[in-house]
Amino acid sequence: MSNENIILPAMSDQMTEAELLTWKVSVGDEVKKGDVIAEIATDKVDMDLDSPYDGKIIKLNTEEGSMVNVGETLAEIEVEGDSLLGSLFD
């Protein structure tokens, strides 16, 4: 098992931040890659944010209504197996 960060990706070239409107998951929830985990709002559009991993949500780092910069960690997820690069540095 390993932990991975779920970060706010840039949805466009001009996007630098977004507001986290609502979480669609809670700590302890199991999610699959592609499941909607949150709703975010940019200056142009509201959209769903999908999980990039299969796993269990272990921490929500951002409160609803908060502004988040692209690249910031929104949540942490526990995934099966080791991260792809983790074993290279052991």
* Radius of gyration, taken over Cα atoms and rounded to an integer in Å: 13 Å
Number of helices: 0
Kindly state the mean pLDDT as a whole number? 90
Summarize the helix and strand pattern as letters: EEEEEEEE
Largest sheet: 4 strands, antiparallel
Largest sheet, spatial ordering of strands: 1-8-6-3
What count of structural domains? 1
Estimate percent helicity: under 10%
- List low-confidence stretches: 86-90
Oligomeric state of this protein: single chain
Q: Supply the helix-strand structural class.
A: mainly beta
In CATH, the architecture is: Beta Barrel
Query: What is the number of strand segments?
Result: 8
Q: Give the overall silhouette.
A: globular
Termini separation comes to: 15 Å
Would you identify the CATH H-level superfamily?
Answer: RNA polymerase II/Efflux pump adaptor protein, barrel-sandwich hybrid domain
CATH class: Mainly Beta
Strand content: over 45%
Question: Summarize this, please?
Answer:
The protein is mainly β. The protein is built from no helices and 8 strands.
Task: Outline the secondary-structure elements.
Blueprint: E1 2-7, E2 17-23, E3 30-31, E4 36-41, E5 46-50, E6 55-60, E7 67-69, E8 73-79
Antiparallel strand pairs: 1-8, 2-4, 2-7, 3-6, 4-5, 6-8
Walk me through what this model shows:
It is a single chain. The protein has 90 residues and is mostly beta strands. The protein has one domain (2-83): Beta Barrel (OB fold (Dihydrolipoamide Acetyltransferase, E2P)). The chain contains no helices and 8 strands. It has strands at residues 2-7, 17-23, 30-31, 36-41, 46-50, 55-60, 67-69, 73-79. The strands form 2 sheets. The protein has a 4-stranded antiparallel sheet, with no helix packed on it. The chain is globular and about 35 Å long.
